[in-house]
Amino acid sequence: MRILCLIKQASEPESRFDLQQGRLLLRQPLRAKMSSYDEYALEAALGFKDAMPDTQLTALTLGPPACDAVLQRALGMGADQAVRLDDQDGVVTRPLAVASAMAAWAGSQGFDLILAGVMSEDAMQGAVGPMLAELLDLPLVTGAVELALGPDDASLVIQREMEGGLRQEVTLPLPAMVTINSGQSQPRYPTLSKLLKAKQTPPVVVEPAAPDPPREVVIETGLPGKTRAGLVLEGDTASKASQLLALLRERALL
Amino acid sequence: MSQTFSGPVVAVAEHVKGRLSPVSLELAACARELASALGSQARLMVLAEGVEPLAHEAARLTGLAVIGVEVAGLSHFSGEAYRRLLSDLLPGWSPCCVLAAHTTSGLEWAPGLSVRLGGAFISGVESWRMDEDGPVFGRTTHHGKLVDQVQAQALPMVLTVQPGSFTAPEQSPERPGPVEIISHDMPPCRARVRPVLEKPERDAALGAASVVVAAGRGVGQQENLEPLRRLAGLFSNAALAGSRPVCDLGWLGYGQQVGLTGSTVSPRLYLACGISGARQHTVGMQGAGFIVAINSDPRAAIFNLADVCVVEDLHAFIPTLLELAAGPPNSPD
Q1: What is the pLDDT of residue B204?
Q2: Once rounded to an integer, what is the mean pLDDT over residues A73-85?
């Protein structure tokens, strides 16, 4: 089986953001890592590779050279090959532009299965995978938590998770596109030997076609407003703890 | 850019097991607001096999004009079927705006539909406002820390609407909306879908608790749940809950998960411990009576919806809190 896994480098949730005149500043100095849902997608792909060692797993990202770090991590976890669609200036961010660039490259490669995280940890749009499925005319399941190869080896039996803890089983013929939600199969850590090997195998760098004009545009980025009082307790740890207890007792909550 | 928004705003209802999902009523409310601001009409579309009762329920609960699409063979949700049906049907109405729920199911058809219709796609919409070029949609990113204001450059605008962001009116409208039933063939689909199942383990105590102590990724280690358990023990009717990452790690059962893919709770008191405040979690607890957030990151999004914010490391704060709570009530602080 040939599997493609889409990987995004995302800023860490704990990163600090600076805003100036409605624009997010200084993307590069943000601490970056592999978007966690993509780690789960890679783990799902590696599960197939564990069971069927002849599986070929390719990790694909789009971004500037700094994104090679997440590709190295993917190789360290067990991917066989890494490909980066080069976006030197980090300007290709709209989901359709990313999906189009990925479709143009992946369409001719004959993958049996394309996996991606259910959304990225930073932009949280959940759109690249579904758009790629549309562009490549692949059947799609979103939010999968379990995957297994069907008895005929030509289909995939998928458990997808829905809202409020509901589940649905879907069978897709291969080739197919599946987006993965986090679940109980925790992503494995890279091994040292694979990481060392990864450092010597730079990713294949591909020049993507220029993106189409965007169909939507972010006109401003800001901080969310507060929906409640948000009383910030001041003082040392013990003082904050006693203030909190007093507040809870005052409201007869304790 | 000049665009006209005369086409209707079409919300596509979500339903499971023959019942409209609560988010469908929120979509209807959002569609009504948007249509009113754009000077166009709001429509609610329901797709199903045996659609008539659902369509009438939707019309009764929302008062909107409902289009029920009868599709023989569409007995369970299928994103592929929705994508194909809607790309066949919607151009006939020339909608300016198509609303889907920002759910696993909505994300299975809305992004692809926008590609197919040549429209814009705006994901996870939580708010909107008008400016001179038309509507501007607000959506949070980075675990709720930032808000992007997004404007469409193409029509139709296909939006996924974040559950819990728009409020359905508490009372049903006086008159049901008009219902139109049309039929359409089931499109060829490659996906074979099975009926939707409940997950077996639902935590009964969580739904009934008047106090919820919730653990997020910030607890760091499983053994750090113990002080939170003891914190819950201070209250007479409290339950321990977790965000999705904590349940994925197996530290708590999925029945104890609060959020979009878990339970929605509205206790009198919600103590959010080490929770970042991403929408997938907050949608499940934003209705709590009083919210206390404890997080070491002063910029965590959870503080935006907390009544009381405690910027502290859990490992220092919770034991101190427990110690003080156990002390004599009149001890000097």
Answers
A1: 80
A2: 97
What is the predicted pLDDT for the residue at B2?
46
Residue B332 has pLDDT above 60, yes or no: no
* A247 → chain B, closest CA residue: B308
**Is B151's Cβ below 8 Å from some Cβ in A?**
yes
What is the rounded CA–CA span in Å between residue B89 and residue B84? Answer: 9
ipTM of predicted assembly, 2 dp: 0.94
Q: Does A192 touch chain B (CB under 8 A)?
A: no
**Whether A142 contacts chain B with CB within 8 A:** yes
Q: Give the phi and the psi of residue A44 in degrees, each rounded to 5.
A: -60, -40
Burial (CB count within 10 angstroms: exposed 0-12, middle 13-18, buried 19+), residue A14: middle
Residue B306's Cβ-side half-sphere holds a number of Cα atoms within 13 Å equal to 27
Letter string b/e over residues B247-286, b meaning 16 or more CB atoms within 10 A of that residue's CB: bbbebbebbbbbbbbbbbbebbbbbbbbbbbbbbbbbbbb
For all residues of chain A together, what is the average pLDDT?
93
- Name residue, tokens 């049903």: B172
- pLDDT exceeds cutoff 70 at B1: no
**A209 or B233: whose pLDDT is higher?**
B233
Contact criterion met (CB < 8 Å) for B304 and A95: no
- Would you give the DSSP letter of residue A202? P
From the CB of residue B170, how many other CB atoms can be counted at a distance below 10 Å? Answer: 5
* Contact flag B304-A186 (C-beta cutoff 8 Å): no
Whether A165 contacts B254, CB under 8 Å: yes
| Distances in whole angstroms, Cα of residue A193 to Cα of each of A131, A223, B83, B181, B248 | 36, 43, 45, 63, 28
**Yes or no, beta carbons of B146 and A223 under 8 Å apart:** yes
Q: Is the pLDDT of residue A208 over 80?
A: yes
Could you tell me which of B26, B61, B65 has the C-alpha nearest to residue B44? Answer: B65
| Interface contact B153-A215, CB threshold 8 A | yes
Q: What is the pLDDT of residue A220?
A: 93
- What's the one-letter identity of residue B274? G
Contacting residues for B223 by C-beta, under 8 A, at least 6 apart: none
Which residues in chain A have Cβ-Cβ distances shorter than 8 Å to B151? 216-217, 219
Residue B239 CB coordination number (10 Å): 22
Residues 200-239 of A with CB under 8 A from B: 213-233, 237-239
For residue A187, list chain B residues with Cβ-Cβ distance below 8 A: none
Contact B191 A139 (CB under 8 A): yes
Closest by CA position to B206, among listed B284, B276, B292: B284
> Chain B residues with CB inside 8 Å of A245's CB?
321, 324-325
Among the residue ranges A57-61, A163-167, B140-144, B244-248, the one predicted with the least confidence is: A163-167
B55-97 residue pLDDT tens? 999 999 999 999 999 999 999 999 999 999 999 999 999 999 9
A254: which chain B residues are within 8 Å (Cβ-Cβ)?
234-235, 325
Which candidate, B103, B157, B283, B277, places its Cα nearest to that of A126?
B103
